[in-house]
């Protein structure tokens, strides 16, 4: 009787490396799924946020994490001065900016002559 139990217990252990791989395969699969569905997208969002915060400049309209909407009046290393109303400026940390609503566009070069008025044409009957 004890001989039959010992034979049955040693038969399952003879799988070796293949048996160990089959046991760890579901754990490995779960880790891969978590990486591609949770970890990697979060890292990409963090990278995009860092780039957005680094590119902030004076005149950008921003929304903070607290929901305050205003224009950037001054840019420092770790802080921004945001004008939320005429004459009302608050200091906020760069990391609390959650969204940039509109960016200031650089002025066009003076080479283009878009100031010309179109010629007035009259229609005669």
Description:
This protein is of the alpha+beta class and 125 residues long. The protein has 2 domains: 2-50; 57-102, SH3 type barrels (Roll). It contains 2 helices and 5 strands, in the order ααβββββ. The protein has a 5-stranded antiparallel β-sheet with strand order 4-3-2-1-5. A hairpin with a 3-residue loop joins β2 (69-75) and β3. The mean pLDDT is 82.
Tags for this entry?
5-stranded antiparallel β-sheet; 2 domains; 125 residues; elongated; 2 helices
Record the strand order, biggest sheet. Answer: 4-3-2-1-5
Q: What is the H/E order?
A: HHEEEEE
* Contiguous runs where pLDDT drops below 50 for at least 5 residues: none
- Taking all Cα atoms into account, the compactness measure Rg is 32 Å
Describe the largest sheet: 5 strands, antiparallel
Helical proportion, percent range: 25-40%
- Mean pLDDT equals 82
Shape: elongated
Number of helices: 2
Note the quaternary state here.
Answer: single chain
- Overall domain count: 2
Total count of strands = 5
Q: Ends: how far apart?
A: 120 Å
Which structural class do you get from the secondary structure elements? alpha+beta
Strand content: 15-25%
